[in-house]
Amino acid sequence: METRFVKESRCYKTSRVFPTDVNNHNTLFGGKLMAYIDDIASIAASKHSRSFVVTASTDSVDFLLPIQMTDSVCLESFVTWTGRSSMEVFVKVITEDLQNGERAIAATAFLTFVALDEHKKPLPVPRVVPETEEEKRLHETALRRAEMRRHRREESKEFADYLTVKFSWE
């Protein structure tokens, strides 16, 4: 089976926080950050699989610190684990105060992507090989997260059976 190192999928995105990017608390709007996260994670998944990818789930986004207008935000993304056609992607959001250079982890996220062929059918992906301590730790804990995803997906499907598609005004 083909393998790729985690570092082969690693990518970065750095942005400045502008006044149009903030919410009523003058911190980066969460939806804006989530769009950045999905974008950079999809690039990491595509680099690993060298194929089209689709977001299967946003497993978690944990907002740890507010991101201020005086900050830049740097997202680091890489594939941490692979299944047959799925890839778990980790995104680390680092905020940096541009005035004093202080950095902190502002958010973390895990997303799952599926590789697709030209007919939009699932495509096998290379196995991922971690090298650094951070990569190894994320890889070692991935099976637990995969099991939680599977359980949550089953619960979501059951829950969807109770939901209606009829609008309240109908």
UniProtKB/TrEMBL annotation:
Pfam family, one: 4HBT
Domain HotDog ACOT-type, residue spans: 7-119
SUPFAM superfamilies (alphabetical): Thioesterase/thiol ester dehydrase-isomerase
Protein's recorded name: Acyl-CoA thioesterase
Species this protein is from: Paenibacillus piri
GO biological process: acyl-CoA metabolic process; fatty acid catabolic process
Family classification: Belongs to the acyl coenzyme A hydrolase family.
PROSITE patterns xrefs: HOTDOG_ACOT
Any one annotated GO CC term: cytosol
Keywords from the UniProt entry: Hydrolase
PANTHER family according to UniProt: ACYL COENZYME A THIOESTER HYDROLASE, CYTOSOLIC ACYL COENZYME A THIOESTER HYDROLASE
Domain of life: Bacteria
Transmembrane residue ranges: none
